[in-house]
Amino acid sequence: MIDTIFNVRRYIAEYSEETEELTAEYDLASFDLVRFQAELNEPNSEDPMFDCYPIQEINVIFIEHYMSHKISWDFNKNSYFVEAHCI
Known about the structure:
- The structure is a single chain.
- By secondary structure, this protein is an alpha+beta fold.
- The chain has helices spanning 2-6, 33-39, 60-64, and strands spanning 8-16, 22-27, 53-55, 78-86.
- A four-stranded antiparallel beta sheet has the order 2-1-4-3.
- A hairpin with a 5-residue loop joins strand 1 and strand 2 (22-27).
């Protein structure tokens, strides 16, 4: 898996719409690169998705299958992104 090779942590970042500050991080229990590329409309199949990818309400059901904890989604107050950081 690419995450093991590059020692990458994948998670959902939650940002306040009011202040744009990071308010929470939620770890992904697993990550399927091909499925995330399709769900989040990454056109380049060679892209390892190390950038930030916005999550829309239509993506919640898909994302929840990969979460290690439940998120109380509130798209009126927060923005959500799939992010990756080298660890």
